[in-house]
Specification:
One of its GO terms (molecular function) is nucleic acid binding. By secondary structure, this protein is α+β, with helices and mostly antiparallel strands. The chain is built from 26 helices and 14 strands.
């Protein structure tokens, strides 16, 4: 028995006013994992995120297979403790006057029981909230946030190993929609016990109760029976097999099968069966199909991509009912369903094609992914678009939902126009010019400048430099700069052995070259141009100039360059000998394989580094904290005051240890690359 709100209109007006005031604060109070009754969050995204996570159930963790726990709360609204609710509101910072208003609203309720048409009793409730009222769902969400925060706190517990997910994806160990909760964990015994401790603490404080008879655990079908028995023993919850039904949609990790959608087909047929035998005109059947029946599959088609067989089956059911007024009718179909789905303005019925509806829903899904920041969109971006932008990422592998989204991307992306305004549009991948993404407008032989991320970068920094100078440093840097700025132009009429200068350069640079000579030959044009320019000026002012002197100076310059790059190497003076030496040069390298090691169970590993330019000079530090499975806990890199290399290394260590202390980590494995500081710390 559940208390139903039969209050008068004045009471519901007060409830609505409080709800509207309270709902403005919910996005800042409720965790992202909860998607119920909040503006900007959708039940669709919760189902999509659940499906994406379970798709990776094969990814084993360091301690064993993955486990999905689907919870069922026993009469969640009825059992909620008022004392727990007031403590929770006070903990979240609500003023006492507001809390008192809430208590007066939910505590001043009296009930009577209607038995055989007569009212019996008149008693006051002591816990729970009414259903059918605007405010109670909001209060229940605030109460359920306690469980969400308890589960989220497990991410900082070194003994908890979560569900195996793609690298760099957001850490998620549960998803909730009001009282429908799914928990993601590994099959590790310690992890499962920590999850059950959170649930037991929530039950004891809020008077909520997990119905373990209706709850279920789900594992991969290849999981060992020993692991399954262990999970059932720790959780006291029985195992069920996929597909799992969550918020009315089938969730599975294997290939799509038509029998996963039998529930949808049965629901449509049962709805039509209630109209069987009733005298409905053709117009009545049109209204029933268009406004009622075709709306039933919308929710499921928004979050899953049913096989073509399922969509065709639904349309076949609609067509049979339209032509024969019953589900199993065999009347003659005077027109195909495709023609019936043509617009009414063109002389047809105007039904909606479910294939077109599916495309439209996934186009909307792509639009939400591109424009609406959410936990689901962040997870999808990290899972599929880590290396490439979502506009150009190709299909490789993933869920059938992601594949359908990429198919609809080609239909909708060129229809999306981004107004520059604040300049947040992506410069290369967003259609902010109304000509399409610039990435597709640039010819294949040209590259794109990845330094320009958005339109604002171009507005503030302007166009990048058109030319890149070679990475060499010689004494005559000014001469090189002038050469690459096109200030020194070669005079016309220069010829070499009957060839023009352009022909001679082309002949030289198209010849095959040993790869080891590339660094030398890349710097050679600059040296030649500079020496020729100096000799040209000497000749202009009537100084003696000889060809041998020019060649000698160029050889000396190239020798200096090689000595600068190869310290301690004996470089011959002659040009041909220098080339021969470079062709035969093989550096002596000493390789030592260094691998990142996982810390022991219950420990964290901290890597730090520091460096400065000039020693002393501008200093920077970096630190990285990872848990026992290698997942990133915290990372930081920033500039500090000027100092030496050792000082920056020491500052990095101190900052890392401070951060570990703030995060309550005391079992620390510190790894640094400074032998001096290592010896100092050990002493």
């Amino acid at each position: 028995m559940r208390p139903i709100s039969l209050s008068n209109s004045v009471n519901k007006i007060f409830s609505r006013v409080i709800h509207e005031r309270l709902v403005e604060f919910l996005p800042n109070l409720i965790s992202q994992e909860h998607a119920g009754f909040m503006k900007g969050r959708s039940i669709v995204e919760n189902v999509l995120l659940t499906h994406e996570i379970i798709t990776d159930i094969r990814l084993r963790t360091k301690v064993g297979p993955n486990v999905v726990i689907k919870l069922d709360m026993t009469k969640a609204y009825v059992r909620l403790s008022w004392l727990f609710l007031t403590k929770m509101l006070r903990k979240m910072g609500f003023p006492e006057a507001f809390i008192g208003l809430i208590v007066d609203f939910i505590g001043n309720n009296w009930y009577s029981i209607l038995i055989n048409g007569q009212l019996n009793g008149f008693f006051k409730s002591s816990r729970g909230v009414k259903q059918g009222d605007p405010l109670p769902p909001t209060l229940f969400i605030l109460a359920a946030e306690v469980m969400s925060r308890g589960l989220n706190s497990l991410h900082t517990n070194l003994y908890f190993c979560g569900f195996g997910m793609p690298k760099w994806s957001p850490k998620i160990n549960h998803l909730s929609y009001v009282d429908d909760t799914i928990i993601f964990s590994s099959s590790d015994e310690n992890s499962l016990r920590l999850v059950m401790e959170v649930l037991q603490a929530y039950e004891s404080s809020s008077s909520q109760l997990v119905n373990k008879a209706k709850s279920a655990i789900y594992l991969h079908h290849l999981t060992d029976n020993e692991v399954i028995n262990k999970v059932e023993r720790i959780t006291s919850i029985g195992r069920q097999c996929f597909p799992m039904t969550y918020l009315g949609c089938p969730i599975f990790y294997a290939r799509r099968r038509s029998d996963y959608y039998k529930r949808l087909i049965t629901k449509v047929m049962d709805k039509l069966q209630s109209w069987k035998g009733k005298l409905l005109s053709v117009g009545g059947r049109v209204v029933l199909i268009a406004n009622v029946m075709q709306s039933i599959p919308i929710h499921m088609m928004s979050v899953v991509n049913p096989p073509i067989y399922v969509i065709n089956k639904l349309q076949s059911i609609f067509a049979k009912f339209f032509w024969s007024s019953n589900v199993g009718g065999n009347s003659r179909h005077w027109s195909s369903w495709t023609n019936l789905c043509m617009p009414y303005e063109e002389g047809d019925i105007g039904f909606r094609s479910l294939h077109d509806v599916s495309k439209a829903l996934f186009c909307k899904l792509w639009w939400n992914f591109r424009t609406k920041p959410s936990l689901w969109s962040a997870f999808i971006s990290q899972k599929y678009c880590k290396k490439l932008n979502s506009v150009i990422v190709p299909w490789k592998r993933g869920s059938h939902v992601w594949r359908k989204m990429l198919e609809c991307r080609d239909l909708i992306e060129h229809q999306i126009y981004w107004k520059p305004r604040m300049g947040s549009a992506q410069f290369w991948f967003d259609n902010w010019t109304e000509l399409g993404a610039l990435y597709f407008q640039v010819p294949a032989e040209f590259g794109i400048d990845e330094d320009i991320q958005n339109v604002n970068d171009l507005v503030e920094n302007g166009l990048p430099a058109k030319k890149r100078q070679p990475k060499i440093r010689l004494q005559d840097d000014m001469g090189q700069w002038l050469t690459f700025q096109d200030i020194l132009l070669p005079e016309e009429g220069i010829a070499l052995e009957g060839l023009s200068l352009q022909q001679a350069i082309t002949k030289c640079w198209t010849s095959p070259v040993v790869p080891k000579l590339n660094p030398v030959l890349q710097a050679l044009p600059t040296c030649i141009a500079w020496e020729l320019w100096k000799r040209r000026n000497s000749f202009k002012y009537r100084e003696e100039v000889s060809v041998s002197r020019v060649i000698y100076r160029m050889s000396s310059t190239m020798k200096a360059l090689v000595q600068l790059k190869k310290h301690g190497l004996h470089v011959p003076k002659k040009w041909l000998d220098l080339l021969t030496m470079m062709e035969q040069y093989a550096p002596r390298l000493k390789y030592e394989k260094v691998l990142w090691e996982f810390p022991p169970r219950g420990w964290i590993k901290v890597n730090t580094d520091g460096a400065c330019r000039g020693n002393p000079g501008k200093s920077l530090i970096g630190l990285c904290i990872r848990d026992e499975v290698g997942d990133l806990i915290y990372a930081e890199g920033r500039e500090i005051s000027e100092g030496t290399n050792n000082e920056s290394e020491a500052v990095a260590i101190v900052e890392a240890l401070k951060k570990c202390k703030n995060l309550n980590y005391f079992h620390i494995w510190l790894q640094i690359d400074s032998l001096l500081l290592k010896n100092i710390i050990e002493e």
